[in-house]
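Sequence in, structure out.
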Amino acid sequence: MLDGLDPSPAARAGPAPWGVTDDMLDHHPVLRLLPAPLRDVVRSQGRTCACASGDRLSEVSPVVGFVFSGALAAFDDRGLACVDLMGPGATFGWETAFAPPPGGLRLALLDSRWIETPVIGLRDAMGAAWLEHVFARHAVDRIHRLKAESACHAVHAVPARAANLIRRLFQAGGPDVRTTQSAMAEAMGVQRTSVNAAVKALEKDRVVSLRRGRIKVLCAERLSRAACGC
């Protein structure tokens, strides 16, 4: 559970922006496939954003995001638990074309980088029919992920879920997972002590090694066996 819904002052001020380059457009699986007029919108109106692991970001702007690296955990509007984990290649924010931003928070579980583009520019370039199609597909995918997350929370114990979260972060950012047990606990909606016990057990079995602010994966195969796999 998040300790309150206010992001840190740094996160509230917003991530530092940079311009969008053609190389960035070619290295995101969704942006790479967009028609030229839409790529032009992202290039001219978008901005590249970055934040550090542990930063909290408010969902206050009607933007569509394209994640390049890291992992962003999206929380429900009450901040109880993560409802979506967005890694490299993910997109977010299509729903803001039809309704105001939901007002929840995102928590960076890894150092993360993404492009934000004002949804109004994409809407004008795409047209309503195409945007509705994209949003519908995005909504269906998100519903499937929510169902999987809900089932995982109900069925699997903390050790298997913690191992699975480490596995997913490993897949997103490599074996040197730069995150904290506190951030993991917030994303899982459990106490930090429960995550600590689960991670210590993995360390004892030589699946991972622990350092301050980092979890290094020593054996991906054994980590996968310990994880629930959801």
